[in-house]
Amino acid sequence: MRELSIAGAWVHEPRVFPDSRGSFHEWFKAPDFAATTGHRLRLEQANCSVSSRGTLRGVHFADVPPSQAKYVTCVRGAVLDVVVDIRVGSPTFRRWESVRLDDLDHRAVYLSEGLGHAFMALTDDATVVYLCSEGYAPEREHGLHPLDPGLGIAWPEGIAPVLSEKDAAAPGIAEAERRGLLPRYEECRAYYARLNGEDGGTGTADGTGAARRAYDRA
Fold first, then answer.
1. Phi-psi group of 137: left, alpha or beta (phi > 0 → left; psi -120 to 50 → alpha; rest → beta)
2. Which residues pair with 95 in a beta bridge?
3. How many Cβ atoms sit within 10 Å of the Cβ of residue 72?
4. How many angstroms separate the CA atoms of 17 and 208, rounded?
5. % the chain with pLDDT above 70
6. What kind and span of H or E run contains 9?
7. Would you kindly state where each structural domain of the chain is located, as residue ranges?
8. Given 12, 25, 39, 130, which residue is catalytic?
9. Are 51 and 130 in contact (CB under 8 A)?
10. Whether the Cβ atoms of residue 116 and residue 84 lie closer than 8 Å to each other
């Protein structure tokens, strides 16, 4: 896993093993995850989202604690996945970073609690699956307008964004900060420290050789 420019966000770039039958890759490995992040992924919910081209979902986030960490990949088609640092007081506050997730390279993105998440479907039937550290709690969920100039996210040109009514009515980041909706960096750091202290990363990677053997047996 490679850390992105926003602390608390990583991209997993798996080795893909193709042959005449198709391909195989490991999109999540608990030991690698724990060794990288310092804690194991608490899995409380798994979601699957299917979107038509241009669908823009987010920017979504939840109150800290416990918020909702996400491990995201695209199993069909392609999306532009975006992580936004919305933690007030963070050295990278308002910074965003995008990663293309698709069914060719099979990258996955992990974003820690307190970070904002959004994606745009680049193809029809773009299918995103993601593991969540907490279940959906509507009373703790919030959103920012993904087209807010205050964020300045560079969405792909030539694709008309399609937003839900809820996302289209979401505030910009400046308004959300004024209303006290955004998580605070120090609170997030304290929560991360608690996670790392309660469940430190003790696993070790077994390498791509094990992946190759697993595929040969499949």
1. beta
2. none
3. 25
4. 10
5. 91
6. strand 9-12
7. 2-217
8. 130
9. no
10. yes
Catalytic residue among 60, 106, 142, 145: 60
Residue 10 to residue 17: CA distance in whole angstroms: 22
The set of residues, in sequence order, having a beta carbon less than 8 Å from that of 54 and lying 6+ positions away, is 120, 121, 159, 160, 161, 162
What CA–CA distance (Å, rounded) separates 107 from 51?
Answer: 18
Check if 60 is active-site: yes
Residue 110 annotated among the catalytic residues of the structure? no
Looking at residue 213, its pLDDT comes to: 39
**48-69 pLDDT per residue, tens:** 999 999 999 999 999 999 999 9
pLDDT of 169: 98
Name the 3-class secondary structure at 41.
coil
Residues of the chain below pLDDT 50: 200-218
> Phi then psi for 133, rounded to 5 degrees?
-75, -20
Element (H, E) at 197: helix 185-198
- DSSP label at 13? -
The architecture in CATH of the region 2-217 reads Sandwich (2.60)
What's the burial of 79, exposed, middle or buried (CB within 10 Å: 0-12/13-18/19+)?
buried
Amino acid found at 19: D
DSSP 39: B
**Residue 198: its pLDDT value, please?**
72
